[in-house]
UniProtKB/TrEMBL annotation, chain A:
Pfam families: DnaJ (PF00226)
PROSITE patterns, per the entry: DNAJ_2
Designated name of the protein: Chaperone protein dnaJ 11, chloroplastic-like
InterPro entries: Diphthamide-biosynth_chaperone, DnaJ_domain, J_dom_sf
SUPFAM superfamilies given in the database record: Chaperone J-domain (SSF46565)
Gene symbol of the encoding locus: LOC107420417
Signal sequence coordinates: none
Domain J positions: 62-135
Automatic annotation (TrEMBL), chain B:
GO molecular function, one term: ATP-dependent protein folding chaperone
Highest taxon, organism lineage: Eukaryota
Protein name according to UniProt: Heat shock 70 kDa protein 8
Record flagged with keyword Transmembrane: no
Higher taxonomy: Eukaryota, Viridiplantae, Streptophyta, Embryophyta, Tracheophyta
Length: 171, 572
């Protein structure tokens, strides 16, 4: 597993409609960020080939991954990421793209639903705090790729992660 | 609304410019059908342009006259005098009447219009007729709207020198899905295909998003989020929206709307001037129609004047022996309409609450619509929003149609080299959608102001031991009991494995796609899993037609509570 920066993560997605312009500058110049790279199984590979609008959301493991942001992202960054992804996967955008099929539109609706779900959880401070607690309990910190396995050390690690998150918030 | 059966862009890979030229002929036009006025606009390749009729009007009166048996609408025909519209031969205010049943208070209020609106108060469509050669000739709001749309279409086709098929129409926030189907029906009758029905304030929000993006481009700024409150009040409806805008994306946070508008202000004022009007005009003879018309014109005129002066002298001879001679001042007008203004305030408050936005966080307050000239409206919007100034960047009478034309261009797959069409509206549901359960209660499954596309599901269970069937009644609205809401349709699910009450799990899922089409799925789950026991039902809604209130009652009489459901207290 390797770390990927957010921008390349998104622009590597195969469904980019030509009319959508993704900003060139990476708004999250984070060095600590470790977005989970695309881990596509054989089955989902096949479906991705058929339906180019299938996005990374299928393989994303946390709501942060869905939006392609780091865990310490500010509210502003969450909103920006949501909007940028909406400009790509919203069914209206996909439907107006050069190659559209009904399956594509419906799978883009699924993608948009996931992105919106992630956004509505993370943009609400209370829901985000709950989600973060749940996330640490489930899989520990994500600061190192090795720690992404579910068998990671739990309590102490999550405490240290917690502190990192708070630092990120101040910073 | 309907599954897009149209094809717009070519399948081949083309550059933006080639694509825009090849699809130019297919650009959807924007139409704003107002209760009193309407307008039509189109993206001309670089900006939105309003089309004018042969009399050089951008705003045309929304009415159709049936004089001499040949219907003609406000696009092509010219009235010799305002009174001609009030002779009984002209039908107007169709936007207030369309898709409503004869128990609806809005229909009852329309009885004071100078044509025939007859109700039998049983929940069917009202009888509407125009006076042609001293005969009441029946028609329907759909027919009137279709005649009007045919004229608009012909006018646009002549000017744009191409056939028009695809349209984006603006609609009031409070329209039920049944009313939307009636609008689509009228469009189909006129040979138009509805690409999108856009709540009016969201069209204004799209125009605002474009303006903000242009300013952001100019400033080279990143375009951080701006929140705007849009208040739109026309003759028939009052709508409010809160939108968060950045980078050409308009995200609708909340919508609120009600069927109150300038027509109510006018009727309250007419009642104030002639309190026994209702009994005087009960007969609907030619003289009564004429008197009603005279009173209407005089009152309308007075209200317009009160926007610019503090008092007005009204002198009108109603011809039936009664004369009105009265001075009315602005305070009196505001007093008479206190309830309407209170409703407007409550819509703003509710919309802000639903959007979870503090008034201090609102960047711009946008006031549009035919009533935006009324000082009291301006003041109440400023007061509730704690502002000194309104947004000045748009023409209040043209904003909605411009937004519709923008959406038409975007939805037609057009792109603009300067990025002026890099726009997206993320819509929200104006009304909750749910089913009847827990007795006679309305249980929302997709709440009001849920972002679209939306998909939500809820679990229900049986109310009787060994109940093998259940009826799913789908309603739309905000009321606690089902009677207060609009019935969209119903269907039966069968094959529930006999079990004690409360044990079977029945999943009801609702899906609204980006073009606002609603599908309802329902079925029985296998015990202990999320898999269906037998094939699920999938129903496109609405399925009900006229007299729909009856269906629910008839089903209840036939089956009682034997096919009822209750909610399961956990969400899946």
């Amino acid at each position: 597993m390797i770390s990927t920066s957010t921008t390349s993560f998104i622009s590597s997605a195969p469904f980019l409609a030509p009319k959508v312009r993704v900003p060139n500058s990476n708004p999250y110049p984070s060095n600590s960020i470790a977005v989970r790279p695309l881990t596509i199984s054989a089955a989902s590979c096949a479906s991705t080939a058929e339906k180019p609008a299938m996005s990374h959301t299928a393989s994303a493991s946390s709501l942060y991954d869905v939006l392609g942001i780091r865990m310490g992202a500010t509210n502003q960054e969450i909103k920006t990421a949501y909007r940028r992804l909406a400009r790509v996967v919203h069914p209206d955008v996909v439907a107006n793209g050069p190659r559209r099929t009904s399956t594509q539109t419906s799978s883009s609706a699924d993608d948009f639903l996931k992105i919106h779900e992630a956004y509505s959880t993370l943009s609400d401070p209370d829901k985000r705090a709950d989600y973060d607690r749940m996330l640490y309990r489930r899989r520990g910190p994500v600061s190192s790729p090795a720690a992404m396995s579910y068998a990671a050390s739990r309590f102490s690690a999550s405490m240290s992660m917690r502190r990192t998150w708070e630092t990120d918030q101040c910073w | 609304m309907a599954e897009p059966a149209y094809t717009v862009a070519s399948d081949s890979e083309t550059t933006g410019e080639e694509k825009s030229s090849s699809t130019f002929a297919e650009i959807a036009i924007g139409i704003d059908i107002g209760t009193s006025q309407c307008s039509i606009a189109v993206w001309n390749g670089s900006q939105v342009e309003l089309l004018k009729n042969t009399r050089n009007q951008k705003l045309m009166r929304s009415y159709v006259t049936f004089k001499d048996g040949v219907p003609s609408g406000g696009v092509s025909s010219q009235l010799l005098h305002e009174h001609e519209m009030l002779s009984g031969a002209a039908i107007f205010n169709m936007k207030r009447l369309i898709g409503r049943v004869d128990t609806d208070p809005v229909v009852h209020a329309s009885k004071s219009l100078p044509f025939l609106v007859q109700t039998l108060d049983i929940g069917v469509r009202p009888f509407i007729a125009a006076l042609v050669n001293n005969v009441w000739r029946s028609t329907s709001p759909e027919e009137v709207l279709a005649i009007f749309l045919v004229e608009l279409k012909a006018m646009a086709e002549v000017q744009l020198k191409r056939p028009i098929r695809n349209v984006v129409l603006t609609i009031p926030v409070s329209f039920s899905r049944f009313q939307l189907t009636r609008i689509e029906r009228a469009c189909a009758m006129a040979g138009l295909h509805v690409l999108r029905l856009m709540p009016e304030p969201t069209a204004v929000a799209l125009l605002y998003a474009q303006q903000q993006q242009q300013t952001a481009h100019d400033n080279m700024g990143s375009g951080s989020e701006k929140i705007a409150l849009i208040f739109n009040m026309g003759a028939g409806y009052c709508d409010v929206a809160v939108t968060a805008t950045a980078g050409g994306v308009s995200q609708i946070k909340a919508l609120a709307g009600s069927a109150v508008g300038g027509e109510d202000l006018l009727q309250n004022m007419m009642h104030h001037l002639l309190p026994d009007a209702e009994s005087l005009f009960l007969d609907r003879g030619i003289n009564e129609i004429k008197s009603m018309g005279l009173l209407r014109v005089a009152t309308q005129d007075a209200i317009h004047k009160l926007s610019f002066q503090h008092s007005v002298q009204i002198d009108v001879d109603l011809g039936t022996g009664s004369k009105i001679s009265k001075v009315v001042d602005r305070g009196e007008f505001e007093d008479v309409n206190r309830k309407v203004f209170e409703k407007c305030e409550s819509l703003i408050t509710q919309c802000l609450h639903d959007a979870k936005v503090q008034i201090e966080d609102v960047g711009d307050v946008i006031l549009v619509g035919g009533c935006s000239n009324i000082p009291k409206i301006k003041n109440l919007v400023l007061n509730v929003c704690k502002r000194d100034e309104l947004y000045k960047g748009m023409n209040p009478l043209e904003a909605a149609v411009c937004g519709a034309a923008l959406e038409g261009a975007v939805a037609s797959g057009l792109s603009d080299p300067f990025g002026n069409l890099d726009l997206l509206t993320i819509q929200a549901t104006p009304l909750a959608i749910g089913i009847r359960a827990d007795g006679n209660n309305f249980v929302p499954i997709i709440p009001r102001n849920t972002t679209m596309p939306a998909r939500r599901e809820l679990l229900f269970t049986t109310v009787h031991d060994n109940q093998t069937q259940a009826l799913i009644f789908v309603y739309e609205g905000e009321g606690k009991t089902v009677e207060e809401n609009h019935l969209l349709g119903y269907f039966k699910i069968t094959g529930i494995t006999p079990a004690p009450k409360g044990v079977p799990e029945i999943n009801v899922c609702m899906d609204i796609d980006a073009s606002n089409a609603l599908r309802v799925f329902a079925g029985v789950l296998q015990p202990g899993s999320h898999l269906p026991a037998i094939p699920f039902m999938e129903v496109r809604m609405p399925t009900v037609d006229d007299g729909h209130g009856w269906c629910a009652e008839a089903l209840h009489r036939a089956h009682g509570s034997s096919l009822d459901l209750v909610t399961v207290q956990k969400k899946i």
